[in-house]
Amino acid sequence: MWIKVLAYNLLNWFRQALLPENIARTEVPTVRRLIINVPGNIVGNGRYRHLRLAPNRWLSEAIRFIKAKLREFIGVKAWINVLQT
After folding, report:
1. Which residues of 11-46 are buried (b: 16+ CB within 10 A; e: fewer)?
2. Among the listed residues 1, 2, 22, 29, the one whose alpha carbon sits nearest the alpha carbon of residue 11
3. Against a cut of 0.85, is the pTM above it?
């Protein structure tokens, strides 16, 4: 049960902190359908592998937005650590 509680809270944080406003207010199954359950292939040679997603303009814009928010979050976190020391 605690794993479910933790997973639900992590997904809620993900929705509120990283997703665009129009998706952040959707329900968990909608987020799962739009962001998490997307088709893709694992490609690459030998040691270097990466994920190639199906072409989807909306998804690529959402991923670009999420990456920008993560960079912002990491930058704020780094500045907080610098100011506290």
Report:
1. eeeebeebbeeebeeeeeeebeebbeeeeeeeeeee
2. 29
3. no
